[in-house]
Amino acid sequence: MAVFRKKKSSGLSSELVLPEHIGIIMDGNGRWAKKRLLPRSAGHSAGAKVFRTITRYCSDIGIKYLTVYAFSTENWRRPKDEIDSLMKLFKDYLEEALRDFKDDSIVVRFIGDKAPFSDDLRQLMLENEESSRDRDGMVLNIAMNYGSRDELVRAVKTISQEVRDGKLSVDDIDEATVSSRLYTAGQPDPDLIIRPSGEYRISNFMLWQAAYTEFVIMNKLWPDFTKDDLDEAIRLFNSRNRRFGGV
Ligand code: FPP
After folding, report:
1. Which long-range contacts (CB under 8 A, 24 or more apart) does 224-230 make?
2. N or C: which terminal CB in the chain sees fewer CB atoms within 10 Å?
3. Probe ligand 1: pick from 24, 26, 69, 121, max atoms within 8 Å of CB?
4. d(CA 243, CA 247)
5. Atom 24 (ligand 1) nearest CA
């Protein structure tokens, strides 16, 4: 694993090793709203604020890759008004990023199938990717209409087609062949995945990439998640003895 030392001041000791790639399953917005007798959309709105804070913080302390799970392939099953409120939050953020973050160093990428989103949202996703492509800072993967099984099925189809077209031989297929056909091609696997809200589930998130990832489950709902919680997750990550199948 590549080692990056922290860049800016935070609550972390300078001796700690920063994970190169952090994944976050931003869970608990609905429960946060319910506890306050608010509509679920209010929970997502509070969650979007925390997403902004934590994204900025990760970039500031020197994290190289951050992947956030914003909308899964299964989230389309939610009531229409909840989906509409999430789409509005995505649109607001992507417009804000284009308008206000011109001098930013963050590279914005989307992982997932963009096809089902509205034309204007797809356009905003493309513009954000294009305008941030040549930056040199943290890569922010926003997982939207993302599902890891769907990603793997797509990779299998791509590989099958390449074999059928004679571009790839079956004997040459190895783990790198699969990794390089995923949305995260060329990126390191996540070292740490954080799931707030206390659920012990992976929920179809980066199944292939998480083969040796350290998991930190936190008993906090995502809208209550703070920079200190991220520091705590990094401290817990540092306390783990990663063996990658060795001894
Ligand atoms: C899961 O919590 C959360 C989501 C399905 C949506 C996550 C989206 C955000 C945090 C907004 C992100 C915004 C941008 C701009 C990327 P849940 O609704 O399943 O919570 P519950 O389990 O408590 O019901």
Report:
1. 224/28, 224/32, 224/50, 224/196, 225/50, 225/54, 225/196, 226/53, 227/10, 227/11, 227/53, 227/54, 227/57, 228/11, 229/196, 230/54, 230/57, 230/58, 230/194
2. C
3. 26
4. 6
5. 30
- Any idea which residues carry the catalytic annotation? 27, 75
Burial class (CB in 10 A: 0-12, 13-18, 19+), 230: buried
pTM of the model: 0.94
Q: Does any ligand 1 atom lie closer than 6 A to the CB of residue 223?
A: no
The DSSP call for residue 25 is E
- Pairwise CA distance, residues 124 & 177, whole Å: 31
**Residue appearing with tokens 């976050």:** 24
The reported pLDDT for the residue numbered 7 is 58
Ligand 1: does its nearest atom lie under 6 Å from the Cβ of 65?
no
As given in the structure block, the two tokens for residue 125 are 């996703």
